[in-house]
Fold these 4 entries.
Entry 1:
Amino acid sequence: MSDRTYILGIESSCDETSCAVVADGGEVLSNVVASQVDLHAKFGGVVPEIASRAHIEAINSVIASAIESASVDVDQFSAVAVANQPGLIGSLLIGLMAAKTLAWVHNLPLVGVNHIYAHAYSPAVDSEPLEYPAVALVASGGHTALYRCDSPIELQLLGATIDDAAGEAFDKVASILGLGYPGGPVIDKIAHEGNPKAVDFPRSLLKGQSLDFSFSGLKTAVLYHVNGVPGALRKPNLPEVGVENLSDSDIADIAASFQAAVVDVLKIKLRRAAKIVAPRTLILGGGVSANSGLRRAAAVLAGKLGCKLRLPALKYCQDNAAMIAGVGYHYLKAGLTAGLDLDARATVSR
Ligand code: KG4
Ligand code: ZN
């Protein structure tokens, strides 16, 4: 019998079906991700019903392939960890049912993992343990929130978006600019060719000491910048509005200016949270943590604050089961196992 703790992790909270085997909370033996991005691209965002159906089709083969490529016998697993909250309810249920079935058939403990905690743990996957206390910014297509973290499983919410998530804003702005889906990677790429000061887009909720975020006004500002303000009289001799009248360099300027506005707000709130917590570590997690502008700004901030910056490897920014199995190890060590009546929850209360 091995003295290592192998956890099988399952993730299906949104549009990635993923299964991983991770040893001792960090060493990834396998991490299989079936992305549905092509299925949702034509809709410009994730369609929940399509997502759940695609999870059903993918889950068995994803699990089989993760177990096979890890080369660990099922009887050597210490637990099955599954993201059971928050997320799309129909999607979560597919991973949860698969996890319960495996736990029951193989007589293994079941661990229900908070998907956000897993993102905040993702820099430790295939890497060094994190040092606490930490401030974590988790920004993705579904979430944008700041946490004080005292361990991988002790997180306290400091602030969150009151409307759109940062990644959602990237996706919607990319759609306004005709850049396709998902928006984050393409905006990040073309922002390098644009001028971030070309358009002065709004930075919301900066007054006072709020740690909450709002990105819907920014998205609307981009929409009005591109298409004009609905109903407003236009002076004669102004250029035609509409994305079809923009040059590639106009589009790059808008992308760069939009990204600068998002990164500014994320950086300012991260700094505010760090002033309160005095952390040893700043953590980024979630799809938006792949953003090159955000990574650069966070590195500068961490340098000024004198704390460590821990970023997930690019492949662990997006949803993946390695982070679920990784943080699941810490749940298991703390005795936080669940019964087969474990529920999926779409939201987690503040
Ligand atoms: O964590 P994730 O895979 O799924 C959710 O839980 O939402 O995040 C996906 C989101 C999408 O909105 C995508 O546009 C965004 O992350 N994203 C990025 C970048 N790469 C992905 N946003 C900004 N810059 C990027 N490089
Ligand atoms: Zn996520």
Note: The beta strands are 6-11, 16-23, 27-35, 77-85, 110-114, 134-139, 144-151, 154-160, 281-285, 308-310.
Entry 2:
Amino acid sequence: MAQEITRTGTIHLVGAGPGDPDLLTLRAARLIKMARIIVHDGLVDPAILAMARPDARLVSVAKKRAHHTLPQEDICALLVREARAGHDVVRLKGGDPLVFGRGGEEAEAAHAAGVPVQIVPGISAANGAAAAAQIALTHRDASSIVSFVAGQCKGLSDQDWAGLAGKGRTLVIYMGVKTAPQIADKLMEDGLAPDMPVAVIENAARPQMRVLRGLLAGLPDLVTREDVQSPALIVIGEVTARGDVQVARTAHEAVT
Ligand code: SAH
């Protein structure tokens, strides 16, 4: 008796950018519109999910700091299971899949299971926020190094951040709202000037974006006083003190 052969599907790890559907790549938009199954995390904007076919299966594996709904191994297992059942899976992530997006772990799981993977880059929060707030991440007069760090990670206090921030450098901190006081202390202990300019960009590239500016020593206070909510980025460096106030005003900026 002839055996039915099921083709293995492909897992597409797709970056959804910082929120605005206009900031999707054409390839991401095409895959979202065609997909029969989309596995997405909590940062993906509803306007982007609304682009899916009406009969698409949308599976949320929302990862919020306080309540992990699905452990990473289970997400990997789900992706592999669906692909092995013959489905092309769109795994949709906020920003870029390979910047604090666990895209590496999911690609490894797929490789180990012999499932093909395609990765579609997205505009990472740092790039989206920089453009929306008109803060240059590098600037010939102010910064020639830019680093992305996770403010919420294992062993934060043991990490050596010396050299990442300071004169001529820009430090972009993802997931740093809750740990802002420890981050500010750590950087000042490492020798950073308390009056180093900082900016906090909440909901970058979304209609409700807020850009808050201040100085490193006042960062914890700024975050508390303005009740900054995730998702937000903290940018530290002289580049945050440049820029066009006019643009900033239209972006609901609070200068502190
Ligand atoms: N892969 C994503 C990052 C995921 S980590 C990317 O490349 O952007 C989640 C963190 O990203 C949040 O805690 C926040 O620091 C940042 N972030 C994501 N979207 C954001 C947005 N629209 N505005 C500001 N920060 C954002």
Note: The longest helix spans residues 72-84.
Entry 3:
Amino acid sequence: MSETKLREDICRFGRSLFERGLTPGSSGNISVRLDDGGWLVTPTNASLGFLDPGKMSRLDANGKLVSGDAPTKEVPLHTALYQTRAARAVVHLHSTHSVALSMLPEIDPRAVLPPMTAYYMMKCAPTALVPYYRPGDPAVADAIKGLAGRYSSVLLANHGPVVSGDTLEAAVFATEELEETAKLYLLLRGLNPRYLSPEQVTDLIKTFGLVLPDHPH
Ligand code: ZN
């Protein structure tokens, strides 16, 4: 896919996420890995709703800015996932239900959500919880790297999700799936809902070739 098309796609998906209230203000950021090993990243202090394809931060393979505005300060969240997974795109949002979920006391750090729906299991599961770090603390990247690429989606406590994908579209859709599943969890919390049974999860794993590290169920 051409870099011009990727720049336009980042703007299009960013606007869509912003307009649906999935990341407020200037929060959230998106990156896409390019064939030369560099990245396109959304700029610092930019709202995902009003991105300019010509101002996108273009980084080289060493993370150095080659053109465009200065990149988001949250670049280390993205590079930590790229360094441990063969991902092509990373999406990070401050999406309300996922952030709310990250603060609940019962959350299993190896799987923040139970097996609620087949699509969550197929697109994101499991999602690991990364402890709280203050913004800009480089230790958060080390915490993500410590997961050794076993998770395609992580949830930063009191902050928001970071989700990788083979394409930008896949990363965006997986982030949306995580947010919607977090919303379902909050809706059902305390109502003793029926989640997928271990047999149903095993069937999904077999049928769709899912790889679930530390599978807790
Ligand atoms: Zn953030």
Note: The longest strand covers residues 160-165.
Entry 4:
Amino acid sequence: MSAPNKSYDPVEVEALKPEEIERLRDEAFAAFAAAGDLDALAQAKTAHTGGTSPLSLANREIGALPPQAKAEAGKRVGQARGAVSKALAARQAELEAERDARVLVEEAVDVTLPYDRVPAGARHPLTTIMERVADVFVAMGYEIAEGPEVEAEWFNFDALNFVPDHPARQMQDTFFVQGTTPDGKVTEGDESGVVLRTHTSPVQARSLLERKPPVYVVCPGRVYRTDELDATHTPVFHQIELLAVDEGLTMADLKGTLDHMVQALFGPDMKTRLRPNFFPFTEPSAEMDMVCYVCRGESVGNPDRPCRTCGSEGWIELGGCGMVNPKVLTACGVDPRKYSGFAFGFGIERMLMFRHNVEDMRDMVEGDVRFTRPFGMEI
Ligand code: DAH
């Protein structure tokens, strides 16, 4: 800052000359106008209005003037600074408006574009049905039990009272897993004692060995048989198994449980019926049918209203069931004099076929999402 000069001569204070002030003001105007965006304007703002800008420095010079000159110079500099901040505010508003307009265009959303270019997958209806069935029993206090798909022949057959020469063990039904004997020889055919499980029933034996009665389990899972893939067979399919072992269980408990299941899955007026059958692991054993889900029995003896789903029989075969054979309880360390049990098992693919009119099993295994998606999402 210059020293106060008593004999005021405005010429001496160069920075306060009217032309100089005008020049500084016009320079600021030009810099603001030249700023093409808000960043550039911020820089111009510092350069022309900041503490070390020429106009701020000129303002400080006023203090050095003799009192009679201060007012005039102050007015001049003040007006120039006022005009500069107005110009700055105007340019600021202009650039902000430009930016907002640009953002609106650049960030506009084209609502006609596909909303999702990566098509979502869908849950397979077999998974959904298995979970639904399992949920019916989980709600009744049953546990979900699982076992391996590569299973010991003992669990798959022997523990379940299949005699050694039972036809189901034969090569045409069962996939035997090749193994190596302790002396390095590769096993042939059915020598290995290891199979791909042919049903979920071995999980019954595993559950009994793992737990102490009372045992209430449901076992959903994948099973294997040496069938060719065609419209009604697949070598890999799914079953759900149920086992209840407790004191005093009878066939009436089995029937009540089956009726409850079909009512929960297919509607309150559903029921099941049992037909005598044979399974080595149940005694007595039965085949279980449920009222036809489509015609509800109305097609029986009624040629005007034939039903394709049940062949106008009024009943659909669900699977097998029975009272657990005491030999199975004994093999699994459960005393059959104290405990009794019931069990059933059925195929999920078949249930999907009649519940949803799927006519060809191959559609279920091909993995085409166009088959899966119409079943919708169930969580
Ligand atoms: N495991 C039998 C099959 O695959 C089905 C079955 C029958 C399961 C009777 C059971 C049962 O639990 O009690 O054909």
Note: Residues 9 and 69 are 9 Å apart (CA to CA).
